[in-house]
Amino acid sequence: AKESYSVPAYAFYGCTTLETITLSGSIAKIEDYTFSGCTSVKEYSLKNVTEVGKYAFNGCTALTEVDFTSVKTIGAHAFDGCTSLGKESTVKEHPVKLLDAEKIGEYAFNGCTAITSVTLNASGVTLERCAFKGCSALMKSKVTNVENVENMPAGDDDPFLDCKEEIK
Asked: What is the helix, strand, coil percentage profile of the chain, to 5?
């Protein structure tokens, strides 16, 4: 079997001047808090990464584009406060495609105010409480495959709490 590696916890924590990250090799996991507070990072490819730890990209306010191709697990608060996520200046829609994700942790995309649409795993996914809370530009009707969510939390734990209200 091919060896896979992880990027250590806190490795780039709070590196506010870091703009570009290129990690080569077989990195299967981004550990907890790895890029937390890296406010200048603009895009990141998670190709071959299957797990993103909790708070891994928390507060990466310049992060606009993430390739989630092989990501299966997204930890709690992983992209919390990534207010530019999904935003590309040339387009009006700011999609986030989580096609392989099987579990999205609590508050994973909390306060990602730029996201306008989300595509979830068609085979089913577990959304933990408040996973997309405060994604104020996101309407539930713009969440593809939401009907495949297993055991959808309700009430104050609703994954889509404080998202954009549906227009009746």
From this structure: 5, 20, 75
User: If you count DSSP H runs as helices and E runs as strands, how many of each does the chain have, helices first?
Assistant: 0, 12
pLDDT digit string (tens) for 18-77? 888 877 778 899 999 999 999 999 888 887 899 999 999 999 999 988 889 899 999 999
Instruction: Say if residues 49 and 72 touch (Cβ distance below 8 Å).
Output: no
The answer to whether the CB of 96 falls within 8 A of the CB of 109 is yes
Residue 10's Cβ-count burial label (10 Å; 0-12, 13-18, 19+) is middle
- pLDDT of 52 reads 95
Neighbour count for residue 151 (Cβ, 10 Å): 8
Widest CA span in the chain: 53
Return d(Cα 156, Cα 153) in angstroms, integer.
Answer: 8
In single-letter form, the type of residue at position 114 comes to A
Model-wide pTM > 0.90: yes
